[in-house]
Design goal:
The protein has about 280 residues and is an alpha/beta fold. The chain contains ten helices and eleven strands. It folds into two domains: about 190 residues, Spore Coat Polysaccharide Biosynthesis Protein SpsA, Chain A (Alpha-Beta Complex), CATH 3.90.550.10; about 55 residues. Strands 3-2-1-4-9-6-10 form a seven-stranded mixed β-sheet, with helices on both faces. A hairpin with a 5-residue loop joins strand 7 and strand 8. Helix 7 runs antiparallel to helix 8 and helix 8 runs antiparallel to helix 9.
Amino acid sequence: MVSVIVAVYNGEKFIKETVERALEQTYKPEEVIVIDDASTDGTQEVIQKNFHDRVYYYRNTKNMERCYSRNRGYALSKGEFVFFLDHDDLWEVNHLERTLNQWGQAHMLYSFPRKLIDQEGRLIKRSGKELPEDPYRVVFSGMVGYPSATAFRRGYFLEYVDKYLVREDWEVFLRASLLGYNIKITDTDTVMIREHSGRTSKSRRLYEGTIRVYEDYVSKIPEAYLPYFLFHVGDVCMRFGELKKGWSMVLKAIRQEPELLTSGRNLLSIIKRGFRFWRSNV
């Protein structure tokens, strides 16, 4: 049995298409649960008009943020496999089928998202990033996160934690790795992330959440993965103009793992972000 959890706040523009795609899957989910975080727009009306008896709709009595909504959705779900889907993202119609076929014995699964779409659902770009074979290197390198690409086997769900907003989606993978979870990374290319003005990926909250994760986890990261963790955090620091902090972490990472410099993507990132002194907070 598969449950799909859709957390939404003020998502009237995208929620109809997102829920339709969940219901149209070639492998039909047994339940689609929509958790409305006290939206102030027409989200509730869109759901009730289009899906009144096809989804389970729950509305928070007040705005509680997305961690609460996802956690509540899981608590209400019954599926052996629980998939999360953000209200503004999309799945290909065979996402559940392809993912379940590759699940194996995993406790937690991540379908690496390669497609970035615009507000109308048109492809903006497709990532050609090469994924390491080691799933834990993917995790500690910060290459996981999007809830729309994340699923749990029943009994292994780890609650999302408000403290780490807006990196709660990365932190839950770090926590699972350190607990010894069997994490599967798939490359089905069936998840589409929507780019729009309301996304938090460009917000300074992403930097602040990353630093909170760093402070709580840096001493816990296994030595073999620490350079990848440091490089990722340093890269985020540089992206937000914290060059001194960013360079310190990146250089420490490279000293510990010189192989990081053999990646053209890493080199480009350093060049692109590490010398923007006009944006520096040094």
